[in-house]
Amino acid sequence: MATPCNVVVLISGGGSNLQALMDSIGTGDVPARITAVLSNRADAYGLRRAEQAGIETVVLDHKAYEGREAFDAALIQAIDARGADLVVLAGFMRILSAGFVRHYEGRLLNIHPSLLPKHKGLHTHQRVLEAGEAEHGCSVHFVTEELDGGPLVVQAVIPVRPDDTPESLAQRVHVQEHLIYPLAVRWFAEGRLRLGVAGAELDGEPLPASGRSIRH
Ligand code: GRF
């Protein structure tokens, strides 16, 4: 059997996406293993999820470092010590330095709760409602130096209903996140997904600018 893809997951909070990844890899169908879960917050519930699954956890408190560069250098050291082939940002609420992003170019994925390039940044569900959008969703993308701006891998699209609230949208988008993030990690682990010069490629073919689209 080929060597599994070593995945390190970075979190700051509840870790429901981490859970979805652990569940997906736990089926034995994905040639990957999560070697460690790192958090910048000791109280992140996702750390408990990892412990329960017998996965190593590491806490690096950003407040203990003098500036972003120093924190990111410590992060790189911790990640590389665990031999990461892929780094998965799963609700990691820190902006990463250009040096960090370059270090992991082509092996750094993020999930964002909007149909990028729309609604980068925070409070996406509220902003979708304010803008009167008919559709919303979530996106998995390779991370580049532009915040929430890297090449898209896959998007799940859901309709916005007339009675939706930020909370109801968040809930339905989360369900989709738990489907598309494990899918993207599976593609990467299987060697099917890579970052080419012109963007994300799946099975050697360039993906559309919006990534693979899954509509509901
Ligand atoms: C998700 O909404 C994700 O899109 C965003 O952070 C949130 C993390 O949620 N990047 P969880 O900790 O995985 O539940």
TrEMBL record:
One of its GO terms (cellular component) is cytosol. It is an enzyme of class 2 (transferase). The gene is purN. Gene3D superfamilies: Formyl transferase, N-terminal domain (3.40.50.170). This is Phosphoribosylglycinamide formyltransferase. The record marks 148 as: Raises pKa of active site His. It catalyses: N(1)-(5-phospho-beta-D-ribosyl)glycinamide + (6R)-10-formyltetrahydrofolate = N(2)-formyl-N(1)-(5-phospho-beta-D-ribosyl)glycinamide + (6S)-5,6,7,8-tetrahydrofolate + H(+). InterPro entries: Formyl_transf_N, Formyl_transf_N_sf, GART, GART_AS. CDD domains: FMT_core_GART. Transmembrane segments: none annotated.
